[in-house]
Amino acid sequence: MVIISVASGLSFGSDSKSVMATLCFFWFWLGFGIGGDYPLSATIMSEYTNKKTRGAFIASVFAMQGFGIFAGGMIAIMVSAVFKAYYPAPSYEIDTNLSTVPEADYIWRIILTFGAFPALLTYYWRTKMPETARYTALVAKNAKQAAADMSKVLQVDLESEPEKLQQKKGNEFGLFTTRFFSRHGPHLLGTTRTWFLLDIAFYSQNLFQKDIFSAIGWIPKAKTMNAIEEVYKIARAQTLIALCSTVPGYWFTVALIDKIGRFKIQLMGFFFMTIFTFALAIPYHHWTLPNNRIRFVIMYSLTFFFANFGPNATTFVVPAEIFPARLRSTCHGISAASGKAGAMVGAFGFLYAADAIGVKKSLMILAFINFLGMLFTFLVPESKGKSLEEISGEAD
């Protein structure tokens, strides 16, 4: 991941095919590495925390994504501001060729290279992290090692009691078995469908903020700016959205998830995402008027707030709690992969939909997708205040 980030960012002067190949490798390892960290981080945190504060701890892991989004926006603002000051250029409508100075090619490479540093800082600590005690004891059948790992993490002396860790034969079922599908099939359907539907809406609105902001006139039309100025203004708008809605939404979830519960937060989040997206879409042309743009931005920000104080956080938390120990990270990974499939649909679908049927109708479709997410939430059980064994049925 570190090597690919640096290679992608520093391959100046390479042809487009080489850049495309490098980026393809980047996204492959991003999915294979960081994508694999989704289930691992959630499972590790769920199995090392107590049932009273488990939701807050898992959600806080995911909430750091908000700071990452904000930091990425700030880096983009600073880098583009420096280049804008040193390399002035005319707008696109004045001079098409000169509006993109050759040095502008360095901007995205520098921003991308910054992604190597968090991965590098994380690598050492990842190598020191032991396997979770539940997996070691219940799946690997090594109670002594589980006790030793727990002693190291919790900094207390623990002794293994192998006779208490023996599982019943009835609980030792695999993923592709009738017993799993009878117990957890609806749960897996719920976690995969809600994450899939969420990411269609969430990534659509994230990736095409610039198109929406341009459509309502919050940022100038692309042809009235040069390339560097466009990067600067889009980054500034996206960072403002992140600061005012995305980051607070994550931490509202952290504060309230163990009080309100996962089910209510997810249902509430999808409900308000549906309401606010319909409210933006139905009177869409009303919002494009100059006097209404600020109201549009506020309502648009609220969709991100309730996405993060809602399903964007809970879809990460719940799969790490409701499945058996031997299948917990696998089912979480399947749910996360379903979400990334939704992100792909959202990224490409909204692009073509906005061109074909317009932003208004595209927003209507996203509102309906949010409504479907609310319906699929009813397949996901509440896990607040219950032990992992009680939720998954392993205590039976």
From TrEMBL:
PROSITE patterns: MFS. GO terms for molecular function: symporter activity. Pfam families: Sugar_tr (PF00083). Signal peptide: none annotated. PANTHER family: SOLUTE CARRIER FAMILY 22 MEMBER. SUPFAM superfamilies: MFS general substrate transporter. It is found in: Membrane. GO terms for cellular component: membrane. It is a multi-pass membrane protein. Belongs to the major facilitator superfamily. Phosphate:H(+) symporter (TC 2.A.1.9) family. Residues 1-385 form the Major facilitator superfamily (MFS) profile domain. Keywords: Membrane, Phosphate transport, Symport, Transmembrane, Transmembrane helix, Transport. The chain crosses the membrane at residues 20-40, 61-86, 106-125, 267-285, 297-318, 330-351, 363-380. This is Major facilitator superfamily (MFS) profile domain-containing protein. Gene3D superfamilies: MFS general substrate transporter like domains. GO terms for biological process: phosphate ion transport.
